[in-house]
Amino acid sequence: MSYRVTLIPGDGIGPEVSLAAKRCIEATGVKFTWDEVIAGEAALKKYNDVLPKEVLDSIRKNKIALKGPIITPIGKGFRSVNVAIRHALDLYACVRPAKSYEGVNSRYKDIDLVIVRENSEDLYAGIEFEQGKPETKNLIGIIEDYSKKIIRPDSGISIKPISKSGSERIVRAAFEYALNNNRKKVTCVHKANIMKFTDGLFLNTAREVAKDYEGKILFEDTIVDNMCMQLVQKPHNFDVLVLPNLYGDIISDLCAGLIGGLGIAPGANIGDNMAVFEAVHGSAPKYAGLNKANPVAMILSGVLMLQYLGEKDAALKLEAAVKAVIKENKSVTYDLKPKRDDPTSVGTKEMADAIIAKL
Ligand code: NAD
Q1: Cα–Cα distance between 246 and 232 in angstroms, integer?
Q2: Which pLDDT value is given to residue 126?
Q3: Phi, psi of 186 (to 5 degrees)
Q4: Helix%, strand%, coil% for the chain, nearest 5
Q5: What is the pLDDT of residues 254-305, one digit of tens each?
Q6: Catalytic one among 22, 67, 99, 191?
């Protein structure tokens, strides 16, 4: 049997790290048929559309995708294609393990955290009103009427919707993950002291859901700013973190920093019956086409895909091969060497070759 998987190479370093991941996943012996489609800059050039319909159609049909990073211009141009894919397919759970690998130059050892980030709501809902537009002015008037608070007339507005149903399903996903992966504790991260009706709702819903897991999984909650400090001071105190969208995004990068960088941080966007696997990192445009980027985050995203497919042995085998290559610290990319300008560092392709050789 062969799994049919949508492959989106992505922008910048995306095509290089996606190819490396595809080769390593295939080398496990599990059979795949890749349905390759383009999104992002390449699709903009070819179809004048950053997210052509065939991309979503392909994922809906195959129910599974491996995706390279796609650029999002800051403050102008198109909205995030990555966020659009997650929204369109309702991939509401973003699962991002942050795990230490021996041989990686990092401030910490033995980190083993999992971030479960809500993917569909919050300030990422894409509901924004531009400064100076008539509708923004109208909205400001309405909000002032209801809230009896003043908003400066030259403001832009971003809306932060957080629902009870959206909170319930992500917190449940975090507890189910904890239960199925032998984890002990779920920590809900929020700012409910300030945003009582959004983060407050998230926290209260989390407390309700936690009751269903009493005696099986521990539950606690922490305010996001305090969480940042605690993660830096004592990251080993945490296990599974569940967060609204924006905090989840920021804490994901912080946790990638704890384990030695974005080059080794994988991720999965999971809905009720489909999933898209992608690294935490972006398209790192300065390294595009240089055969320099670390392919491990994409390869480990492939490990998560193999786990999701129930291919446990292949997943274990591929992760073990990655671990061994990182530990040897010989055939690794520049970012995994003790000094970044180490002349013995290898390229994206060569690191993938070394991983394949260990399988
Ligand atoms: P980035 O993750 O692309 O890069 C930040 C830095 O991290 C890079 O300069 C590089 O030093 C390092 N880095 C990242 N990936 C690496 C790898 N595989 N190997 C070695 N070093 C690596 O973040 P950015 O520069 O803020 O974003 C670039 C673009 O990517 C932006 O347009 C952003 O919107 C987009 N982005 C996309 C996704 C996604 O597709 N899911 C995620 C984050 C950012």
Answers
A1: 19
A2: 86
A3: -115, 130
A4: 45, 15, 40
A5: 999 999 989 999 999 999 999 999 999 999 999 999 999 999 999 999 999 9
A6: 191
Please give the pLDDT value at position 77. 65
With CA atoms as reference, report the closest residue to 2 among 20, 22, 29: 29
> Alpha helices, DSSP H only, in the chain?
14-26, 41-47, 53-62, 81-88, 134-147, 164-180, 199-211, 224-233, 245-259, 296-308, 312-328, 348-358
> φ and ψ at 266, to 5 degrees?
-90, 175
Set out the domains of the chain in order of their start, with CATH numbers.
Answer: 1-96+265-359 (3.40.718.10), 107-118+162-259 (3.40.50), 122-160 (no CATH)
- Percent of all residues in the chain with a pLDDT value above 90, rounded to a whole number: 93
Q: Is 342 a catalytic residue?
A: no
**Does ligand 1 have an atom closer than 6 angstroms to the CB of 20?**
no
Residue 225: active-site member: yes
Q: Tell me if the pTM is above 0.90.
A: yes
5 C-beta neighbours (distance < 10 Å), count: 23
